[in-house]
Amino acid sequence: MAYLQALLAGALVGALYAALKVRSPAPPPVALCGLLGMLAGQALLEAL
């Protein structure tokens, strides 16, 4: 359920950025790498 909430929050923020025509603070590839790192870290912690 937490993954779904995170996905919805990210989509909401992305929609707000697009609506306000604000540039993202990080380039998309950097942001995606950061998101993948957070997911991997959470999966690692849950596996321990």
Automatic annotation (TrEMBL):
| Pfam families named among the record's database cross-references | DUF1427 (PF07235)
- InterPro entries this protein is in? DUF1427, XapX_domain
- Highest taxon in the source lineage: Bacteria
- Protein name, UniProt field: DUF1427 family protein
